[in-house]
Amino acid sequence: MKNFEYKNPTKILFGEGQIASLNNEIPENAKVMLLYGGGSIKRNGIYEQVKAALHQRDTVEFGGIPANPEYEILLKALNEIKEEKVDYLLAVGGGSVIDGVKFLAAAALYEGEEPWDILAKNIGRDVGLPFGTVLTLPATGTEMNSFSVISRAETKEKLGMSGLGLFPQFSILDPKVVHSIPKRQIANGIVDAFNHVMEQYITYPANANLQDRIAEGILQTLIEVGPKVMNDPTDYNAAANFMWSCTMALNGLIQNGVPGDWAVHMMGHELTALHQIDHARTLAIIGPNHYKYNFENKKEKLTQFGERVWNITEGTMDEKAQKAIEHTIAFYHQLEVPTKLSEYTENYKGSSQFIVDQFTKRGWTGIGERGDLTPDDVKKIVEMSY
Prior knowledge:
47% of the residues lie in helices and 11% in strands. It is α/β, with parallel strands linked by helices and 386 residues long. A 6-stranded parallel β-sheet has the order 1-8-5-4-2-3, with helices on both faces. The protein has a two-stranded antiparallel sheet with strand order 6-7.
């Protein structure tokens, strides 16, 4: 097991009715900006619960943060934060809204001329405006970590950022919100969380037995409850386990002491930026082919994955590892998530070169857990995913 440091300061308030706890978490004298997405919170009752919990606090609102939070839209929110002298942010939404608020928390205190440089130049942010979240769509785990990913349509880029100042002070997780989530978004959440675990688990053995077992437990739980939530979002117990699995998949716990891959996400982000495909679905497109291409380097963990998660007991190591990939593809299909790029766009043939050009421009010449995947390797993996 590798050396590690771990600190997660985010307070979690989990369960039905916890939105009312907002009143205890945000200072009474705070100037609050409430940020949300397309307005679904006003149709499903969450908005009213939040407003009631905020009581008489001085509040301004900013709606319309889109899926894959867009830089130009966030700049409008940033201007309003400064004009209104906002000193506390509240994200009410899914991963896109929360990621957008993390960027705003950093950008509000950034002294440079171009806030995009925080992402483009990978400037770690150890300070930011305080913020909390009310999670409305389980998927990304951003409600309990310090990572954020922002899109910029102008340059067809999707870049990440992190820093100690970007942990939410608190996050409210009420499984009842799952009742109103569209089936497609539930499927996305399951696939997203599943791949977050895979990026930290399907690497190479590191003698981190507990981390492996926790990772396997999250994967098994998603396999068990995912279809239940898809079929009946009102199943509270299934929704609760789904929601907590998504959070646990990326709160830093299972990444301690182990190598991390993240090449699937790096390639997937580019497909989202280029084709506007849902983030989770880009992971389902790239992931299986990434494992096939890097089979020799990953087959020990793929075999373990097959044995412990999919209960594959027969065959050689290679056969078990191959079956594990096949079972994963079948699981995505069970969730009605296609796994080929050509199923999402007719303009897929230039995708590999676009991604290679982007990686080369940024100096991303060696990615993956071993740092040995070159742009040429990336090109081949993307083309396998057509």
